[in-house]
Amino acid sequence: MMKKHRITSALALGVAASLALVGCATGNDTAGGDGASDDKGTITLGYIPSWTDGLSMAYLMQDQLEKLGYTVNMQTLTEAGPLYTGLAQGDVDVFPSAWPEVTHAEYMKTYGDDLEDLGAYYENAKLTIAVPSYSEIDSIEDLKGNADLFDGRIIGIEPGAGLTGVTQNSMMPEYELEGEYTLETSSTAAMLTVLGEAIDKQEEVVVTLWRPFWANSTYDVKDLEDPLGAMGEAETLNFMAHKGFAEEFPEAAELMASIQLDDDQYGALEDLVVNEYGEGEEAAAIDAWLEANGDQFDWVVTE
Predict the structure, then answer these.
(1) For the whole prediction, is pTM greater than 0.90?
(2) Could you count the other beta carbons within 10 Å of the beta carbon of residue 141?
(3) What is d(CA 140, CA 138) in angstroms, rounded to the nearest whole number?
(4) CB-based contact 52:93 (threshold 8 Å)
(5) pLDDT tens digits, residue range 125-136?
């Protein structure tokens, strides 16, 4: 069953359609710092609120960059395409949760010449196909011939997500699931609603998920084995900036290049931001995380 954590309403933003960069802003962009004329400049962090790995890292970076003396703008978008477009054009300075090796590889091919990789901060990011823990299905290859158990549906997330592309273009053809299953896309929030309702009723459901993601511990789910490797190998999460960022903001780039988080540290960060504190209390969540974990790192900036 789902643990009784508070899920932020920010997830609901994922239902919005992909728009141009300016139109994608939700209207609640926030500017950090005191806006003083002698600060180190303004850095815009772009992220998708329903992708909570990026949400939690964006708020951590807002805290740390402001303590270094930067003004920080938080730019919310709804799809990866406009985010990478804005990044390449310089409208967004940093995407603090890029998956460049597998999940966002197509965006890197398209925009890579205009981007600057500031370094990886997490080493074990992975795309998954998951079912409830009580399911007798243990492998993706076991989905074939069992479509009736799942009403012929694989519940996905945003249409433009890298996970969606890998599922549709790699996993489904590799395991010969096309024609037997339909990948239903809408938003992360909608996927989690379907997952939660199915688990509450002890019904079968198959969804697209990823790690790190708080839902893996909040919902009673298990990853299906992927013997053909169709979902790709584990990859890194990176700070991705527009070309020339490190030259323009050297201290910020140095900070990002020094950050490393393991599973427990990242999991605790995401859980505090998304579940324990929630929307509107992100700064308090970051304070709590830094108090509990800050002494483990050399890179932490204090007041």
Answers:
(1) no
(2) 18
(3) 7
(4) no
(5) 999 999 999 999
